[in-house]
Amino acid sequence: MRQRIRKGILIFSLLMFPITFMLLSPFVIVVSASNGVLNGSAMIFGTLLLFSMVGSRLFCGWLCPGGALQEHITVVNSRHWNSKGKNMSKYMIWTIWFFFIVYLWLQNRPLKGNFLYFIEFNLQFFIIYSIVMTLIYLFTIMTGRRGMCHSLCWMAPFMVIGEKLGDFLHIPRFRLKAKAEDCISCGKCTKNCPMGLDVAAMVKEEVTDSYECINCLECVDGCPKKAISFGIYQKQR
């Protein structure tokens, strides 16, 4: 039942994406920063960073429209796309992009807040939207399970930083917990994971923290022995 609710929310988020697209855009934040404006994208990304200190990457698993599109493409390509090298590329892209924005903010002080800055629904918008959706679709087709999330997502680093900051400050946050003795090695958790994580191995080691985990709870709901649970916990030492 919980996964039906999650997937229903994701579908609704995807249907609303034409409206929220500009508020999640990495390009619009650059345009805004070059004009001395702190826009909706900047405010939302900052909010996600703060939220992830407690809520981890629940946004990715439950609300992200790009993630919703990718999960539906899994029926075409369900290959796992998860490795250290593939995951690092998004951080390199994000670092260049983020410091360029900071540079623009510093060059165009004082900043003015305008949540709806640069949001216009015209032909140009729909062309850009179509191109972006096509790129997400094609990249996921070529890579596999949430390939964009692993390799190109500009939003994930904000939440990973938030998770690390929360751990550094010893703030309890949303996590998974596992009981290795209850695991029967059926492999359903790994098979169901939309991020292609080796959840079964993580359960065996009772180390379920992963910055690539999107907290979708597929592994929790699919485990026949309830070996995986979730809650608000501090980082295990």
TrEMBL record:
Coiled coil: none annotated. Gene3D superfamilies: 3.30.70.20. GO terms for molecular function: 4 iron, 4 sulfur cluster binding; metal ion binding. It comes from the Bacteria. Pfam families: Fer4_10 (PF13237), Fer4_5 (PF12801). One of its GO terms (cellular component) is plasma membrane. InterPro entries: 4Fe4S_Fe-S-bd (IPR017896), 4Fe4S_Fe_S_CS (IPR017900), Electron_Trans/Redox (IPR051684). The chain crosses the membrane at residues 9-31, 43-64, 88-106, 118-139. Keywords: 4Fe-4S, Electron transport, Iron, Iron-sulfur, Membrane, Metal-binding, Transmembrane, Transmembrane helix, Transport. Residues 174-205, 207-233 form the 4Fe-4S ferredoxin-type domain. This is 4Fe-4S binding domain-containing protein. It comes from Anaerotignum propionicum DSM 1682. The gene is yccM.
